[in-house]
Amino acid sequence: MAIGEVPVVPPPSAMRHARLLSTWGEPPGFFGWFKKVHHTSIGTRFIVTAFIFFVLGGILAVLMRLQLARPENRFLGPDKYNQFFTVHGSTMIFLFAVPLMFQGFGTYLVPLIVGARNIAFPRLAAFSYYIYLFGCLFFWVGLLLNIGADRGWFAYVTLSGPDYSPGKRVDFWAQMITFTETSALATAVCLAATILRHRAPGMSLNRMPMILWEKLVLSFMVIFAMPAVMLSSSMLLLDRTVGTQFFNPAEGGDVLLYQHLFWFFGHPDVYIIFLPGTAIVTTLVTCFARRHIFGYAALVISTISVGFIGFGVWVHHMFATGLPQLGESFFTAATLMIVVPTAVQFFCWIATLWNGRVQFKFPMWWVAGFFFVFMIGGLSGLMLASVPVDTQVHDTFFVVAHFHYVLIGGAVFPMFGALYFWIPKMTGRMMNDHLGKWNFWLFFIGFNLTFFTMHFLGLRGMTRRVYTYLPEMNWGALNLLASAGGLLMAAGVLVFIVNFFWSRNNGRTAGADPWRAGSLEWAVPSPPPHYNFAELPTVNGREALWDAAPRQPVVIGVREDMRETLVTDTLDADPDHKMDSPEPSVWPFWTAVAVSVLFIGSVFSAKSVEYTSIPVAITIIAWYWPRWGESQRRKATEIWSE
Amino acid sequence: MRIARAAAYATLLIAAGCQSNHSMLRSSASRQAANIEWLYWFIFWISLVVFVLVISFFARGSARSQVDDEEMAPVLPQDEERDRGAKAGVAVAIGITVVTLFVVLALSVVTGKTTAGLTSQNPITIQVIGHQWWWEFRYPNPQADLTVSTANEVHLPVGKPIVVLTTSRDVIHSFWLPNVDGKRDLLPGYQSAFTFQVDKPGIYHGQCAEFCGEQHAHMGFEMVAEPMDEFQQWLQQQRKSATDPQDITTVRGREVFLTHACVLCHTVRGTDAGSKVGPDLTHLASRRMLAAATLSNAPGSLAGWITDPQRLKPGARMPANPLQPDDLQALVTYLRSLQ
Fold first, then answer.
1. 267-306 in B: which are within 8 Å (CB) of A?
2. A350 touches chain B (CB under 8 A)
3. What percent of chain A has pLDDT over 70?
């Protein structure tokens, strides 16, 4: 089969390009920045912002490693250290991993992969970014004022309650959760709707690329998991601000209730972070093994079952609380059960490579890194699933090692692979492989030095979240080794940043499809124009570009003088109706501002909610206010107008 | 070569630390810890085999059909026939995975049962109460005045089941003696019980494992496991009230204690000091360590601790006590006499 010779979507004429841009183009200038609604603009913002917070969280990690390099070190002291580890963990989970892997890649790629001109509910997607950004700033302002949250990324009661954490520190954390989860929920709705109703004709459910399946499962996981943590953090906030007693044992409150609510979100969240990684690995393995993925049906079922079982394992974070043994055994079994779908995915990837025509281009290095690192994390997870072993290593550096192997292995290695793979699409320039290899080796060696060492520290009794340790414990040498590794990792990330800026100006031109890959985002120019597809594509198989017929039809009859989009049905992606996509608008921004004022105000005074909800109502009304021109135009096209 | 040397160095480091009184590896003092360690190593070896297998299949799979070409190669046509062998391979691999998981599950449940199901014929019962940031250990007795309360140093007889009743007065802490058994959270509002037995006499280090605030890092304790008769002797001694001071310095020291901030938080049985906010000091001098197993119990460190606890443990609940040098001297002498 020939690929790349017959473009599925032929390039438009200059006139057509201009016409499409005048309809779909993003508003220019400084004020235009606040009005943008195209998914590539929003996705890029998410990726860049989340990456900045990845770097900031990493800087905190390096500072913590410096503090721990020697016993009884006085570099940070307990107050700074507690703020740093809290903000590090919360930043990496809430401000980096989910926003980048789910929201950033999802918003940028999903509309392209389904073959649509924009995301469903683009204004909601824009709102989602602003509210995320304001949440980030709110949280970090606390740290910069030296009143940052200091009770861990989990903020267990009663330590985080009003009696033991006076002041506003924990409130920064609790309300940051509300910001970021509002944002994640908004994105989840946008992505689920895009995937279910905006797929190109022919892309029936059984022809969806794996990355769409994963984003769909993730969207539903977010919709079910995030409310639990918003609930627990809001109850905590109420305890702290208006004197409810949900978690105060002296008044009949319950400290374990908080843990159940938190981990009912917390464990699915691990999969919300890890599933995007598996989807990236599937995409890269398919592309670089030069064949369709092995075991598509098995992979789809695995992804869905991870989505379900992921909600049934949360108690394994609470094995040390002394729950009944039968209950604990149930959660051990569920935790071991989730290994099966994960193992199925690994076997399918290996089988794909085995019978493929492997071209080990640079993004594949990160897939190899993912295999190595994530396997170790998964296998130490096997030890933690066992209740007796868990009660020993729980809350020690062994667990720190385990989840960094899982999360950095399962998310950060695939993320770098994805960036090297898709940045050519986003900037139009190839990344530099030579610098990339420096990035890889520094990061890989540094990572293993830092975190493999921590397994030994944990087994030798070093507990987590300690700002220092006594010299008599003999943990000094291993800690020094771990700290050195941390510096190497930081150097690796620095090389990536240098590589990005260098390549953006000097890299080879990428062209539309540098990897000769199969999915639809490679059918459009790099970077994609704001209308994405000049001709709306149709799809013939799972890998749209590889399976395209020599004269693959395109969709006609969609207006180009206004933002008309095609809505298809959920199962077979048959054309269903046409719909107007919203125009650029500044109101998502103002709504986000108003909602932020409400969120922040509620931390300081419960009464303020009454007044600050007024601007929220006003901005939402303005957001939906119909425009004269628009309604006239619609009137003119109504076929049943009187 | 360099890697080999680094590996050898790392192994040495690890081996050096194995014989420790605060470790779950190769230093167990009880059957529970030994059982758990056995299970740990069992899963470890399974994991090692799985890791080597998966990584070698990945490497072989990537290498066997590699095309080293600058240009991207054409895509292979879809072919059911070609994947038939791979299908069988994946099915076998999934089968092995499921069997392995069941083995791990079964062993884990069995180990959990034997660890928890220690039959206890007239066990020793102790209470562990967590405080920010120190440990209260109580040996309850039906006769209230025979109940012993001590802090940060727990004595236990070897070869006898110990029932531990846990709770917390403020935030969540976690009681952990790595050489003896897994950890157990101390939850405010809950009282839970668990049982273990220490088999090897010795002094073991314990540590709070749940983040509990500023001085979580320095919330340690010591467990002294000793033969039954020595334990009984110790318990008898702890039941006594403090001895009255014999010489003029200690009398002065007691005056300092009772007229300064000390008395607001601490108890010395046999005197007017009876506050329960801080650790019971009736037999302070009999303990090996100070400040939750952070400082050795020597006159110098005691004086330093009293004068400025915030320098040694920033955030600790004990305030600084700027005493006159001779007052401090007398106070230290008095506290050192509380055997």
1. 294
2. yes
3. 98
Whether domain B248-336 has CATH 1.20.1420.30: the reply is no
pTM greater than the 0.90 cutoff: yes
- Angle among Cα A241, A245, A250 to the nearest 5 degrees reads 130
| Token pair listed for A213 | 């399946």
β-strands B220-226, B153-157: how paired? parallel
CB contact under 8 A, B47 and A382: yes
Compute φ and ψ for A277, nearest 5 degrees.
-60, -45
Q: Which of A151, A164, A291 sits opposite B76 (nearest CB)?
A: A291
At B10 the three-state DSSP class reads: helix
Cα–Cα dist A60/B251, whole Å: 52
pLDDT at B6: 57
Residues B215 and A470: beta-carbon distance below 8 Å = no
Q: Cβ of A466 and B217 within 8 Å?
A: yes
Answer yes or no: do B24 and A459 touch at CB < 8 A.
Answer: yes
Interface confidence, given as ipTM, is 0.92
- Separation in Å, CA of B76 to nearest CA in chain A: 5
Asked whether A245 and A302 are in contact (CB, 8 A), the reply is no
CATH topology for B13-61+84-239? Immunoglobulin-like (2.60.40)
* Sites in chain A below the pLDDT cut of 70: 1-10, 639-642
Residues 179-238 of A with CB under 8 A from B: none
How far, in Å, CA of B141 to CA of B125, rounded?
9
Tokens of A491: 């150097």
Where does CATH 2.60.40.420 sit in chain B? 13-61+84-239, 248-336
Report chain A residues whose CB lies below 8 A from the CB of B94. Answer: 340, 343-344, 347
**Chain A: closest CA distance from residue B3 (Å):** 11
Domains of chain A in start order, with CATH, are 14-361+515-637 (1.20.210.10)
